[in-house]
UniProtKB/TrEMBL annotation:
Source species of the chain: Marinobacter manganoxydans MnI7-9
Family annotation (Gene3D superfamilies): 3.40.50.11550
SUPFAM superfamilies: EreA/ChaN-like (SSF159501)
Annotated Haem-binding uptake Tiki superfamily ChaN domain residues: 36-244
Record protein name field: Haem-binding uptake Tiki superfamily ChaN domain-containing protein
Taxonomic placement: Bacteria, Pseudomonadati, Pseudomonadota, Gammaproteobacteria, Pseudomonadales
Length: 314
């Protein structure tokens, strides 16, 4: 069994891809998941960011889920990894009406579901906890990115009613972060090209959908604590989904647990460089490089883009 004791020093680098060094940046102390849960027990929404597919992120999420449950069994699991139009298919699995492979196919679960998200869903299922499919439908997001916000006028009324009434709410800080992340340069008048603006709108649709689903879940399950798992870009620095939650429901309390890669050179001051990412930070080992060959990387990216554009938005 892994030790439940917090590291004695913040210089204790994660030793494996499963390890996470959990830190409270306010007082620079290391924490165990159980100690973190004690500090979060009264929070309405706990948002745990992740690097998709990183074992350290997913193991920490699972440990925190069970630790929070022991203190506050009224818990909701909200997941970016399921799209909101597949809630019925997910519910059928939670009720025991379908098997796991059927659910993975019917609910269009992510490819790494078994390796990364099975423990979270199985814990919720075993304890009869709600699991919320919170992301916007992938096909709709893709087509908004290609065609623009007006694409929402072309989808069915049934699906449109499941999406946020205001699907493109944002904040200036998030726009700046997004544009910096995708390498776009601001024009002199601080406007974006139509293509980049559409891509940004697609991102906003995801964040607004997740914020909407979290608030709906709290309405349907009063007094429950929401544990929301999501890619870190959607939550770190209090932006994205978190900013929208605070805009729409300033009365609720939200805590952000964000990942950061531990540098091999500790002189890089890992805590100081990452402390603004969340209320709590967990350090994990960097992921290996996908490519070293630039040509192979370009070919892979081209193939991924081609697969996306092969699907019609008409």
């Amino acid at each position: 069994m892994p030790s439940s004791k917090a590291p004695d020093t913040l210089n204790s680098a994660p030793q494996t891809q499963y390890d996470a060094l959990l830190v409270n940046p306010a007082n620079k102390t290391a924490l165990t998941p159980e100690e973190l849960a004690q500090q979060l027990a009264d929070v309405d929404v706990v948002v745990v960011g992740e690097y998709h597919g990183h074992h350290g992120s997913h193991l920490l999420q699972s440990r925190l889920q069970s630790a929070l449950f022991r203190l506050r069994p009224e818990q909701i699991l909200s997941m970016e990894q399921f799209n909101l139009d597949r809630q019925d298919e997910l519910n059928r699995y939670l009720r025991g009406e379908t098997g796991e492979t059927e659910m993975i196919e019917d609910a269009e679960a992510w490819d790494n579901y078994r390796a990364s998200y099975r423990p979270l869903v199985e814990f919720a299922r075993r304890h009869d906890l709600p699991v919320i499919a919170s992301n916007a439908p992938a096909d709709v997001v893709r087509c908004v990115g290609r065609k623009g916000p007006g694409y929402l006028d072309r989808i069915s009324d049934t699906l449109r009613q499941k999406l946020p009434a205001k699907p493109f709410m944002d904040t200036p800080e998030y726009r700046e972060k997004f544009m910096a992340a995708i390498g776009a340069s601001h024009q002199a008048d601080d406007t974006m090209s139509e293509r980049m603006d559409n891509t940004y709108k697609a991102q906003l649709l995801r964040d607004n959908a997740m914020a909407t689903r979290i608030l709906q879940a709290r309405t349907e399950h009063p007094e429950h604590q929401v544990l929301h798992v999501t890619g870190t870009f959607h939550s770190e620095n209090g932006l994205g989904t978190v900013a929208l939650l605070k805009q729409r429901a300033p009365e609720i309390s939200v805590a952000i647990v964000s990942p950061a890669f531990w540098p091999w050179d500790v002189n890089e001051a890992p805590l100081e460089n990452n402390r603004a990412k969340g209320d709590f930070i967990y350090f994990i080992q960097p992921l290996p490089d996908e490519f070293r060959d630039a040509q192979r990387e370009r070919e892979a990216m081209t193939a991924r883009f081609r697969r996306s554009t092969d699907k019609s938005c008409d």
